[in-house]
Amino acid sequence: EQNNKRFPEGFLWGGATAANQMEGGFHEGNKGLNIADVLPGGKERLKLLMNPGFNFEIDEEKYTYPNHEGIDFYHRYKEDIALFAEMGFKAFRLSIAWTRIFPNGDELEPNEEGLAFYDRVFDELHKHGIEPVVTISHYEMPVNLVKEYRGWRNREVVTFFERYVNAIFNRYKDKVKYWMTFNEINSGLMMPIMGLGFAIEKEEDKYQPTYQAFHHQFVASSIAVKACHEIIPESQIGCMIIFAPVYPFDSNPENVLYAHQEERLFNNFCADVQVRGEYPAFIKRYFKKHGIELEIQEGDLELIKEHTVDYIGFSYYMSRTEKKEKTELEKAQGNMLAGVKNPFLKASDWGWEIDPTGLRTSLNKLYDRYELPLFIVENGLGAYDKVEEDGSINDDYRIKYLSEHIAAMRDAINEDGVEMIGYTSWGCIDLVSASTGEMSKRYGFIYVDKHDDGSGTLARKKKKSFYWYKDVIASNGEK
Ligand code: BG6
């Protein structure tokens, strides 16, 4: 009789982060400015950034910039990695800040101080037997490439990216086996500025530049896959997408069709190209409909076809419920992916609907379509935490959220036959929120004493979930 509680041997349990949200040291080691460095703190940050008038300058009189200090991982990485090791982490997902390696993005030679920093971090991880899982680009484009080149709209950026990936693959070939190209690549459909590095000036002008920029990223992604396989033969390199399954609001066939179309466009388009190596039929039709004519250079499509990813990394936070005709009132609040409220689900304090079964559905949908190993590289609950008088932090809500999602993953593996590499929960140590710049939106097993107004000692503290996750890992998910 099969044990239905088991996870595969060697399953990569761990946590996930991104350089810009935790490192700080934003000027140290000759680092250049990236998009997150010019992003003010506060709930309005994404609106500000998406405003075509945004100038990508720092204005300290008007705003605060939480990413500048982050949680000071740049100086405290040894302490933090020791805490991850205490929890038993098998893997730690982090990103390399492009601007530590190429401060302006367009230099010819990499910056030695930046390269040396990640050497120290990877060595420290290996000292504790933790496998680094590295995102090459996590919403961290050099500001210079945004200002001078208009981000991924410009083909030249592919060349700069190629230089960057060659530098890091050559440098870290003995230290990093798991890679990912672009974080949540499909977010470019929603917020082009974060992923694609440019703002849309007028809604009707979005189509051509957005998909041209995507084409450049797909070429860049295949260049990275090719180089990774050549330079580090035993490596695995994946894509990374946001996956939020789209449910029809009801059985009205119009809504079923609409949900399917939305899901295909948002969830599948990028992975289709990166996994199958081809633009799918539906998107070609969509290009025609919107008058999109991609500039494709000789050899691009062959490159994309030949150098597809080894696994699918994805983030899962919520599902999305769709209705073809929706009123303002029905719209789900806070859910960046829009949609309508799902009457069966409760939402987090930030309006993100909590849906563990949706994770099992996502794993099934992804595996049915691609039959590639899956890696959940982000999942977690952003919540307010309270430090009690005795210093304890009793985050039972986080434990509940994570254990329900882990159980859904276990069932997808054991009951549905989905193949998985690992699970790294988001923000394993509290860090700066990407969408709001808040510290109070916490995800961690480790509390960081830093607050929205910038105050705090930066001291680290174990939450209740720290001990819980340690048990999960020690029992390989059986507990
Ligand atoms: C993902 C991003 O979208 O969600 C992370 O890859 C981000 O960078 C995470 O932090 C959670 O979002 P937020 O806005 O709560 O930080």
Automatic annotation (TrEMBL):
SUPFAM superfamilies: (Trans)glycosidases
Pfam families: Glyco_hydro_1
InterPro entries recorded: GH, GH_1_N_CS, Glyco_hydro_1, Glyco_hydro_1_AS
GO molecular function, one term: hydrolase activity, acting on glycosyl bonds
Signal peptide: none
Active site: 378 (nucleophile)
EC numbers on record: 3.2.1.-
Group of enzyme by EC: hydrolase
Keyword tags: Glycosidase, Hydrolase
Family: Belongs to the glycosyl hydrolase 1 family.
PANTHER family per record: 6-PHOSPHO-BETA-GLUCOSIDASE ASCB-RELATED, GLYCOSYL HYDROLASE
Entry protein name: Glycoside hydrolase family 1 protein
High-level lineage: Bacteria, Bacillati, Bacillota, Bacilli, Bacillales
